[in-house]
Write a structure and sequence with these properties.
Chain lengths: 124, 359
């Protein structure tokens, strides 16, 4: 399993070669509550780092998701259309959102430890 | 300083996601809203609602005083019965919605966010001899809701559960703990609300969970009450709205004699300017509080409450609109997350429990 990195806006990214898998963190899914709908991009779409990737709509609110890295969408998690609850149940596994072919240099991201500290601070 | 209910430790044990609500740390959800709301509709869910305000009115003249403060007619309220009612300002604006209990003493259960306001409102107006007491910390409150709620209470020794009339109040023992129970709730389902000593609440909680009752958080409570078309103070109504604008005119008994707000309500009844309607989201539309509601390009109002109902399978909401601007069946647009969504005006409530489950 490739190492995960995180953003301050609660997305995660795992890099396998030049393909990045992106999702929302466990903290984000717990805070949002039950995910109901996802608004995800079409394969082929090019995104800059930090750009809006799509939106997650939960019982509580609709929230934008930002891509941690720049790249081209190569795959979207189709299973989420019929089973959006996977985002809640397994945010780092079956609940992944999209895969991007990474373009350009990677921006600075948070590692597990720094993201954990950020969460503890947010929850304090 | 954030407040914690006597069941706080149980929420942590049950893995609740905790959130701040009206100054209290309360469970948002334990497992998921999908599971929790389904439990309420099909079997039983248990909510810790100890954050709700409990005020008692004692002394000679307590009944008459309360009668002068609420819109309902308490003279018609039999002993051991409760009544849903409102307190209004002299100008007809709603101070709070509440349940009045005529038990051993007169008491009221009010919204957590309004506890201090209501306490001051009543205390400032109470005549000599009537005392208003805040009993919130003296008693825990649990809501056991769902078609099997009463049967489960009977299993745990509260034998009169099933024979309590709707809004009836009874005293007994549940799981060995003395309780006062009322056949009330905020979910649109059959059920009981249980008043119990704070130190007995965790044991009661454990015994109910052992029978398979699903602990439910505030998120599921909000979905259930919205499905049932029940208004939420602070969202669907406030001091700037009067009962006739939010479909609560049925709680106002203008014929009962004088009470706070009566003169204004007599006038307001004639020409309410707004009305509360139900909205069913079409496709992926979820009406969200604050979203503008438009009909054929004209803004007619705004969403006051909204969420997604797993039970019904679509987004639901309530909106305050200009009276007469929309009728049941009308197509409206609701501003949604970075797009506009379609919704249909529907009759409230969205959900009515099957007749067989009624007491």
């Amino acid at each position: 399993m490739p190492k995960r990195f995180y953003t301050e806006t609660h997305e995660w990214v795992a890099l396998d070669g030049e393909v990045a898998t992106i999702g929302i963190t466990d903290y984000a899914q717990a805070k949002l509550g039950d995910v109901v709908f996802l608004d995800l991009p079409q394969p082929g779409r090019e995104l800059a780092a930090g750009e809006v990737l799509g939106a997650v709509e939960s019982v509580k609110a609709a929230s934008d998701i930002y891509t941690p890295v720049a790249g081209t969408v190569v795959e979207v998690n189709q299973d989420l259309t019929s089973a959006p609850e996977k985002v809640n149940q397994d945010p780092y596994g079956d609940g992944w959102l999209v895969k991007l072919r990474v373009a350009g240099a990677l921006p600075e991201l948070l590692d597990e430890e720094r993201y954990g500290a950020l969460i503890r601070e947010a929850e304090a | 300083m954030i407040r914690k209910t006597p069941l706080h430790g149980r929420h942590l044990t049950a893995g609740a996601r905790l959130v701040e609500f009206a100054g209290w740390e309360m469970p948002q959800h334990y497992t998921s809203v999908r599971e929790e709301s389904a439990a309420v509709r099909t079997s039983a869910g248990l909510f810790d609602v100890s954050h709700m305000g409990r005020l008692a009115l004692t002394g000679e003249g307590a009944a008459e005083f309360l009668q002068s403060m609420v819109t309902g007619d308490l003279a018609r309220l039999p002993e051991n019965q409760a009544q849903y009612t409102l307190m209004c300002r002299p100008d007809g604006g709603i101070v709070d919605d509440l349940v009045v209990y005529r038990g051993r003493e007169w008491s009221v259960v009010v919204n957590a966010a309004n506890r201090q306001k209501d306490f001051a409102w009543l205390r400032e107006r109470a005549p000599a001899g009537v005392e208003v007491l805040d009993r919130t910390d003296e008693v825990a409150l649990l809501a056991l809701q769902g078609p099997s709620a009463c049967a489960l209470a009977v299993r745990l020794g509260f034998h009169q559960a099933g024979s309590l009339p709707r809004f009836g109040i009874g005293e007994g023992v549940l799981a060995g703990e003395p309780i006062v129970a009322s056949r009330t709730g905020y979910t649109g389902e059959d059920g009981l609300e249980l008043f119990v000593a704070p130190n007995a609440a965790p044991h009661l909680w454990d015994c109910l969970l052992e029978l398979g009752v699903q602990p439910c958080g505030l998120a599921a409570r909000d979905v259930c009450r919205l499905e049932a078309g029940l208004r939420l103070y602070g969202s669907d109504m406030d001091e700037e709205t009067n009962p006739y604008e939010v479909g609560l005119g049925w709680t106002v008994r203008l014929d009962k004699g004088p009470f706070c707000g009566r003169e204004a309500l007599l006038r307001l009844r004639e020409a309410p300017s707004r009305q509360l309607v139900g909205l069913r989201g079409e496709g992926q539309t979820i009406p969200r509080p604050g979203a503008a509601v438009e009909r054929e390009g004209d803004r007619v109002g705004a969403v006051t409450s909204g969420t997604y109902s797993f039970w019904l399978g679509y987004g639901i909401g309530m909106a305050s609109v200009v009276r007469g601007s929309v009728e049941v069946g009308a197509d409206v647009q609701v501003a949604s997350h970075r797009r506009s969504g379609r919704a249909t005006v529907v009759q409230l409530p969205f959900y009515r429990r099957p007749a067989a489950a009624k007491p």
